[in-house]
Amino acid sequence: MHLTAGLHRSMQRHPDKIATVTGSRRQTFRQLVDRVSRTASALRALGLQPGERLSVLALNSDRMIELLLAGAWAGLVINPINTRWTAAEVAYALGDCGASALAVDDGLMATAQAMTDALPALRHRIYIGEAQAPDGYLCLEEKAAAASPMEDVRSAPDTLAAIVYTGGTTGFPKGVMLSHGNLWASLVGRMAEVPTPPHYITLLISPMFHVAGLGRMLGQTIVGGTCVTVPVFQPRQVVDTMARERVSDLAIVPSMLQMLLDTEGFNPQHLPQLERILWGAAPITLPLLERGLAAFPQVQFVHAYGMTETAASVSVLQISRDRDFLAGPRMRSAGQAGLSSEIRIADAEGQELPPGTSGEILIRGPMVMQGYWGRPEETAQALQGGWLHTGDGGTMDEGGFLYVIDRIKDMVITGGENVYPAEVENALSSHPAVAACAVIGVPHEKWGEAVHAFVVLRPGAALAAAELDQHCRGQISAFKCPKTYEFRDKLPLTAAGKVQKTELRKSVAKGSAA
């Protein structure tokens, strides 16, 4: 199947249903299909041919949705770019994938105009904002309004659909190549495990330069659901938008749930229409999950595990409110392999390990990426033996429930013992005064590495490191407990809400150098 197949389905079934909401602007599926087909025609009129890369630097909006779908409709390869990147990082991605066109909205125009790198492949700079196009940019809205609708190219499943760059936590970002079939298999696999009814109104909080946000948008086009957008995650704005638009479905990362629950004056009873909260991208602490379950007794909570290289989720866990489940070990799992995925735990040689043994999580299935753009050696290494080597450490029980321990590269080896930061973070977060935390390994003369904790306290809370250390020792083994604690007002987060441990490591390194 192809990315725009969902549009055709919804056009047949729900032509007059609201497809997108951005602020006060609303459009039906009939209007969306018309705008997408005209925008695709305008892109092709510029001379852009199937297979060329269309980079998009924009915040979530209906216009971004239209452009991403129009790129697929025209047979282009869409490349949504991280909105938190610097001009130099944006230029790197454009040069790396050989983008022929760059589309920019008002919120990111300053970043685009700050680029100084020579980009010989970039033929077109496109404006998709709400004002007048800046010098050097053509107004896509004007071009699309004057264009005639074009037929959908309906790309073959193995055709490259998107290049989505990884976060670039080490070295340069890598462009993950996802085909139409990869994305479709991921969507259908997830919806087979966690169905999405047509009446769902989804708030797109996750930016669409991530597969979570992109996939959630595409999933709504398949079932005929509504996408409500907000440009950035601001807790108060999100809460107000959810209440006003009667949002029923939310896909978030744990840090966002934490901030929503901590919003001043937040009352979950003002959101009676909310039916589901799906989280992923980072581990959730048990105290936060329990707090969410208590705040939203009517809401279904679902955990999804996946990554860019798998076009989003490969396993899901539906949280049961049964007392035995909540007290049992499987509440901590990432669920079982989805319909379109196969998961195993393997040793360093790629051999499958018995249940309960820690190793690397390997994945295969139709949703696994085609490879890394322009990086054949890294592609071969990641896909050796026909399995995606995720770099995540985990275990699996006798029932096929997956337990994600942590990134293998984030593992701290202290005194010869392996310590996974997620386990320590879970222990620290169980203290009622802790709002957020992150754990990394730092060099240590005696132990090789030592566990170092960054801690953010709840407003008005006071807590000494010794008290927190005593609490931690009551939760986990002494060798896993932090040797040092650092209290901060906040933690650095990515645009998707993940803690930027690279930035934390840099801050520690700078402090050591000083």
UniProtKB/TrEMBL annotation:
Residues 423-498 form the AMP-binding enzyme C-terminal domain. The keyword Ligase applies. GO terms for molecular function: acid-thiol ligase activity. It comes from the Bacteria. Residues 8-373 form the AMP-dependent synthetase/ligase domain. Coiled coil: none annotated. PROSITE patterns: AMP_BINDING. Keywords: Ligase. Belongs to the ATP-dependent AMP-binding enzyme family. This is Fatty-acid--CoA ligase. The lineage of its organism: Bacteria, Pseudomonadati, Pseudomonadota, Betaproteobacteria, Burkholderiales.
